[in-house]
Amino acid sequence: MVTINVFHLGITDEDLKGAELAIVPGDPARVERIARLMDNPVHLHSVREYTTWRAEIAGKPVIVCSTGIGGPSTSIAVEELSQLGIRTFLRVGTTGSIQKDIPAGDMIVTNGSVRLDGASTHFAPLEFPAVANFECTQALVESVRAAEMPCHIGITASSDTFYPGQERYDTRTGHVIRQFRGSMEEWQSLGVLNYEMESATLLTMCAALGLRAGCVAAVIVNRTSQEIPDESKIAACEATAIKVVVDAAARLLK
Ligand SMILES: O=P(O)(O)O[C@H]1O[C@H](CO)[C@@H](O)[C@H]1O
Ligand SMILES: O=c1cc[nH]c(=O)[nH]1
């Protein structure tokens, strides 16, 4: 058998030990914490924004690999993990809610994303929906409910930029292009739940490539009342989302 190498991640198909499911957080610092909630965690490689660990759930291998921030780096991680044999991707992230009734600490499961990114257009035209896989969504929802956390299921606005695309005005110049001025209010009125930066790319490319993907995020700020998250609460929000995603992986592997 010929070993499969990939351009960026610095791992091969042999490192996966047959894993077909990957948990993909944005932040590399989250990877080890996720892997250590499973059995036999092993660090495989770290390069740029990509840190990869392998662990096991009930004897089945699972890969945990960070995507970095945004669509372009996410598309590389997903493409290369898929080249190595991964077929199911569970994103676990942080997010800013834009609906008044979704406070920091709650969990959001994305069932579809507004494609405010560029990378997804390299996989499918904008008319194609960024839709989550039903089984992944179901597993994530069951896991949030099992954790007895408030679970919001719905549409996420997924933006290439943290600032203008999520209608944060440049503090020095006040600049945000016309396209995004008033956009948060428009998304709110359309029932969009939250902002983050990877789900549009992840869900579109997985749907286009015949892969399964789902996305859960911990709300760390509610944009209707606050701009800067409460630093002391972020770790607890992330810890819950991490437990949820590992539980969802276990459900999908059963
Ligand atoms: O916490 P992660 O997974 O990085 O997700 C969110 O946080 C980053 C922005 O601060 C973006 O990547 C956004 O999607
Ligand atoms: O408001 C937020 C919070 C986290 N991540 C985002 O992309 N936006």
From TrEMBL:
The UniProt GO MF terms for this protein read:
uridine phosphorylase activity
**Could you tell me where this protein is found in the cell?**
Cytoplasm
What reactions does this protein catalyze?
uridine + phosphate = alpha-D-ribose 1-phosphate + uracil
Q: Mind telling me which residue stretches traverse the membrane in this protein?
A: none
Q: In which pathway does it act?
A: Pyrimidine metabolism; UMP biosynthesis via salvage pathway; uracil from uridine (phosphorylase route): step 1/1
EC number(s) reported in the record? 2.4.2.3
**Leading EC class:** transferase
Q: Which CDD domains match?
A: UP_EcUdp-like
The UniProt keyword set, sorted, is: Cytoplasm, Glycosyltransferase, Transferase
Q: Where is the Nucleoside phosphorylase domain positioned along the sequence?
A: 21-247
Write down the PANTHER family for this protein, in alphabetical order: FI09636P-RELATED, URIDINE PHOSPHORYLASE
Q: Which family does the record assign?
A: Belongs to the PNP/UDP phosphorylase family.
What is this protein for, i.e. what is its function? Answer: Catalyzes the reversible phosphorylytic cleavage of uridine to uracil and ribose-1-phosphate.
The protein, known as: Uridine phosphorylase
This chain's source organism reads Parendozoicomonas callyspongiae
